[in-house]
What does this fold into?
Amino acid sequence: MMRKQAQRRKAKKVSRIRMPKLRLGLIVAPLMVVGVVVSTYYLSANVLDKPIRSIEIVGPFQRVTALEIEAAISEEMENGFVSADLSTIQQRITGLPWIDEATVARRWPSRLRITVTEQVPAAIWGESGLLNVRGELFVRSVRHVPAELPRLSGPEDRAAEVARRYLEVRQRLIPVGLDLRRVHLDARGAWEMTLQNGVEIRLGRRDIEVRTELFLDIVADIITGRAAEIQYVDMRYSNGFTIGWNDGSNTPVNDPDQNADNMLALQGSR
It folds into this structure.
């Protein structure tokens, strides 16, 4: 009986886990291909990475010289034609005060082509700063301030807002024969504008949008016909405005939308 049980135990099969067979060639071949590609890349890079022998600078620029651009990127020029970081070169060029945009491209076999666009000053900021057409302060101080540019001023972090208001108001004044010479935002948030003819517009701190619309819709027409007689217009009222005349007198206008006769009198002779 004991012998039969022992034979039965021997007859039981032992289960084994069989690992899949991998062909060595399936692993080695791709690795060899990758190695060849990488080696070819580095070999080619070393062969092509010659010193940069010339720089071509293109663009209608007057404020920045080619020598200034070359000086700004001189450290990057020590790298080879392939290894030169074009993004860094571009950042160094646009970091110059009068450069607005720049593109950098490689030209075989050893030349870099740099295309630059200068900033276009659209307004004077403060005493001697300059804003571009996007309302960005790109130069904080210049020796020679273009006299023909409008003057904008205010807190530096609100330069774009001041520029935007200037453009919006000016766009609506031009059709009626008026133009803006100055826009100022003081530290308390009060707005003032001066027209090209010297008339001062006081908007104050509150209801700026409403007061601006009232000025553009009604007061601008009055100024067009009486500019030589008007010194200022005070818009800092909840229901109207006051016109200050050059002779020292002033005329308050209440509810201008409801007082058509008064408005016609102001637009006519005084």
